[in-house]
Amino acid sequence: MKQYRMLALVAGLAAGSAHAGGAGMPMQQGMLNVNGAQIHYVSEGTGTPILLLHGYPLSGELFARNRDALTAAGYRVITIDHRGYGQSVAPAGDPGSLSTYAKDALGVLDQLNIPKAIIGGMSMGGPITFELWRTAPQRFLGMILIDTIANPAGVVEQHLWKGMAQKASTFGPQSLAPELLKDMLTGDTRLHRMADAMFLTNIVKQASVAGDVAGATVLATRPDSVPTLKTITVPTLILEGVEDTVYPPEFSVKLQQNIAGSTLVLIPGAAHAAIFEKADIANAAILKWARAHDLH
């Protein structure tokens, strides 16, 4: 097996990003008319742009704990709600697809006059990031892959996502929260940091039924992006919760093995929503990686 690099995760790593230093940083948010949809975005800070794409069935608020630390270090953090999620609204005729999600992200960058950015995706945001790379590699300064996968969905996973779509259609978006929270957060977090579970639950409830169905379909039918990995030429950081049961660490190791020069950081005590559950460690890892590659 090809040797991979892993940044040491020690208590001191997070010290530089533990404070909410983004207070006073320029922030703008609102709705943009993109490809027929109303896309909600938040942009905070100045400097090198970082566009972060959320997973299923969440919103840009997944990254609420990342904005301040990254903006305080001199970055501009842009988050969006994919159409049908959070505050974004999709037209009835186009609730969402892999291509549409990618075009929406590019449309937001265009309207914010951002020619290039570090682009990162969590879970479903990973396949969207790969689609963005295939269609517009010139827009990337770097890439961040967070608890995600390049492989297509196997038979069991396809049926899992189809079940999610059926449950959302029958019982509403809020019904997905119990199905997802057990994988998003570790048992320890769910027991002792119940506010974290409630925060993610409230995000899940914001999605539309059409959005839930569209996203589940994207995950069930996503293309094989493993061949894409060999084509990635920008600095790439892979963040992975050690306790992730949706896309376990083995998949992130495979990402690292196939993306030349990429860096893998395993985050202990974190599950699928590692970027939220262990935000201090994730923030410190992003900053260390970005500085190492002069992405500033």
TrEMBL record:
Pfam families (alphabetical): Abhydrolase_1 (PF00561)
InterPro entries from the UniProt entry: AB_hydrolase, AB_hydrolase_1, AB_hydrolase_fold, Epox_hydrolase-like
Cross-referenced SUPFAM superfamilies: alpha/beta-Hydrolases
Segments forming domain AB hydrolase-1: 49-279
Residue runs in coiled coils: none
Secretion signal, residue range per the UniProt entry: 1-20
Keywords attached to this entry: Signal
Keyword Nuclease: no
Keyword match Signal: yes
Protein name: AB hydrolase-1 domain-containing protein
Organism annotation: Deinococcus metalli
